Amino acid sequence: AGTLGAWFLLLSLREGGMPVVTSLIGLGLYAFSSAVWYFSVAAGPSATALAFSEAVLLALVIASRRAPYGLKLPTITWLAVISILSIIASQFNAILMLPACYVVLMGSRSPKTKGFNVFCYLAITIVGSLMMYILGGVIFNQIRSPLQFMDWQHSYVYGSRWWSQGFVDTVQRNWIGAI
Length: 179
Hints:
179 residues; 0% strand; 77% helix; mainly alpha; single chain
C-alpha cells in the first residue's frame, strides 16, 4: 500500500505540472516520512488509508486541471467514488471532502451550477459512504437491525480492544505489528 501511495503521489506531482526533479524530491520526502515507515510496519489498515488519501489527491489534481473547461457530473461522480473508497479505508479521510468541495465549486463554470455541483458531490459521497458501512455491517458482521448497528458502532468507539491502553500497550502492539 505504501508503494501504491507513492505512485499516486508521483502521478499527482507530474499531473500538477511539477518538473521531474521536483517530483522526485517530493516523492523522496513522502517515501522517507515517518508515516509511511510507521504504517508499513505497524499492523493495521493505515497504510491503505494513506494510499487512498494519495488517490484522492491525484483525483483532485486531475479534476482541478479540468476545471477551466467546467466540471461535469461524470467527473464529479468519479471524484465522489474515489472519496468514498478513501473514507471507507479510514474515516479520517472524510476531511478530504473539504478540498474536493472547493475544487468542485471553483470548477463550476456558471454561478447557477456551483451549489448544485457541490450538493451532488456531497450527496454522492455521504450516501455512498453510509451505504458501504451499512453493507459492510450486514455482510461481514451479520447485523440485522438498527439496534445491532448502533451497538457495533458503539463498540468501535468505546471497546477496549480497538484502542491502546497506555504506553506499554502501544509499544507492545507496535512490536507485534512489526513482527
